[in-house]
Amino acid sequence: MNLFIDSPANSRIKELVKLRESPRRRKDRGMFFVEGKSELQFLVKAGRVISEIYYSLPDIDETREDDETLEFKNAGIQIIKVSPAAFAKASYRSSEHGWIGMVSTWDIELEKIHFPDAGPIVVLDEVEKPGNLGAILRSVEAFGGTGVILSEPAVDFFNPNVVRSSRGLMGSLPVAKGTKDDVLTWLKSSNRSIWATSSHTDLQLGDSTMPTSTALIFGSEKHGLGEFWKNQDLQWIKIPMKGTASSLNLNVSVACLLYELNRAQKT
């Protein structure tokens, strides 16, 4: 029989709240907070380690409830039923019903991650917003990118909003982080063509064909690419815009360049 937690003051519920809110707690525990059944399913398929799943469902018969939990039970995950009040206390979305999991973090240091030898890689320098990062991971996966490198990120990769915005794809896409120097050294050794975005260059997206094995470098949402990258020998390109906006959302910029890579390969 499933365990059941009724009180929002239960120690397990309090721990979920800590993991949801605190980067330090996630680092100390080596665990992070995931809300959503589809997100948890993606992480299971990616082979990530889920130690516990907490769920609260609207009143349904026991047979259907067993069917709902069967996939996770078969994966060897401990399943714990909680009351609507307890779930709402832990929930990132303030929901009374749904699924929350405690998932083990993994090492994303640059030297520990393997990327395919061919295909586009997206490099994000000093990315700040977890929602943007999660959305970019979805775009990279959708357009056939082979991975993402975070250059001195200002965001915790295991932030719940990264998980939510990526729909759990953050568990299956190769993602690494490193210092600017380490990232640049890795890029040069990868034999990829290195391109960076700037509004101050003449070359526009579509004017020149980028090779399939390309590294695309994007700056932070607030400041763009800084002096470190401007002083490197890179190919610079800009996204042409007809409106009055001076810049695009970071995820939109990434999607534009990856789409152009796909389009160019088919022409």
Explained architecture:
With 267 residues, this protein is α/β, with parallel strands linked by helices. It has 2 domains: 3-104, Ribosomal protein L30/S12 (60s Ribosomal Protein L30, Chain: A, 2-Layer Sandwich); 110-266, Alpha/beta knot. The protein is built from 10 helices and 11 strands. The chain has helices at residues 11-21, 23-29, 37-45, 62-74, 84-90, 130-142, 160-166, 180-189, 227-230, 250-266, and strands spanning 3-5, 31-35, 50-56, 78-82, 98-104, 121-125, 147-151, 175-178, 193-197, 214-218, 235-237. The strands form 2 sheets. A 6-stranded parallel beta sheet has the order 8-7-6-10-9-11, sandwiched between helices. Strands 1-4-3-5-2 form a 5-stranded mixed beta sheet, with helices on both faces. Helix 1 (11-21) runs parallel beside helix 5, helix 6 (130-142) packs parallel to helix 7 and helix 6 packs parallel to helix 10 (250-266). The longest helix is centred in the C-terminal third of the chain and has 17 residues, at 250-266. The chain is elongated. The model has no long low-confidence stretch (mean pLDDT 92).
